[in-house]
Task: inverse folding
């Protein structure tokens, strides 16, 4: 935390520790954003190429990615 305003405490809005699944998804998303792009189609393609599947074990679709981001509160 900094002494100057405005400041942001790390994870100040988090209510619990992220699950191993959420950590893996976040790390993979960072990689995808860096290597593939930020468009939804790029993200879905990048996750599927890295075999980081949706919670049901299926490949991602744009709809399933949106639903999961909503569920996770992202």
Result:
């Amino acid at each position: 935390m900094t002494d100057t305003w405005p400041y942001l405490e790390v994870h100040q809005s988090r209510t619990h520790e992220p699950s191993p699944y959420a950590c893996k998804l976040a790390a993979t998303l960072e990689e995808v954003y860096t290597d593939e792009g930020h468009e939804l189609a790029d993200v879905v393609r990048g996750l599927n190429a890295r075999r980081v599947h949706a919670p049901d074990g299926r490949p991602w679709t744009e709809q399933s990615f949106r639903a999961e981001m909503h569920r996770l509160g992202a």
